[in-house]
Amino acid sequence: MGAGCASSHSFGRISADGKHLEGLGPRSRGNRCAVSPNPAIDVTTWARFIERAPAAEHAVQVYDDVSELARSVAAYLAAGFRAGDPALAITTPDHWDAVARELDSRGWDPGALERKGLLMRADAERLLNALMAGELPSPERFREVVGGLVDETCERFPGRTIRAFGEMVDVLWRRGQEGAAIALEELWNELAETRSFALLCGYHLDVFELDVQRGALPEVMRMHSHTRTVEEPSRLAAAVDQALAEVVGPFRAARIYLDVAEHVPHGSLSRGQAVLGWLSSGEMPLAHEILQRARMHYVRLRNAPLAA
To answer: Is 3.40.50.300 the CATH classification of the domain at 42-231?
Structure first.
């Protein structure tokens, strides 16, 4: 079907057989490095992607625990199901189990969604086996296999934007095949030029490690239009604030924030991540100490309720 899937026409909420969807609403359970001066801006930008997921946008959730990833993926897919948009989930089996539990907790039955055709699933590792040509993914195989899955979904739901979630890049990265993961990201971005879908990826990275801040994270971020480096950016900002106050004191901390605001373009990353990235790129001994203290404070704050 090719570029025909990129249609921007608006249709009613229909199923694969052309009928309006019934019985698939939530089950009733009773009533590139950028800085935001305010962590709420990152929250707003990320929330807008999760809710609206415009075609050709490409987001990444960096996660420490699979439960963090599952919550983001379930929220992203559920928002699409509410709008009648189909989903394509390319996952590992254990991660899909976590996502399915999250969907179920939100009132969505994954089995019913699959039977209705709103949800298509594929195994990430098996798909990779079909795509790889030596150390890199084959562009031709990618277009045939992944493009075929997108086209198949598109044909059943003309005019809708598919919500795709993919873990093949994460599988490659965890295998140590970083170059192959980036090449696969580029293939996804090329496919989005001729197909109507949004894409969410996940990467298992420790953002409190200096090597990750200096190498892996910038490389991953440059491939995506939206990046969430932790599940709770407001807590990361608070953790970084406290770490800076303890290590360098309030006056130098203020100078660091001014330097970040001056030199890092305004954009979609939270203040906390922008500061960590800035320090890691130039002041490695200080960055290492700040990262370790920020980790300690983030873990502590993550278990504490946010102030009203």
So the answer is: yes
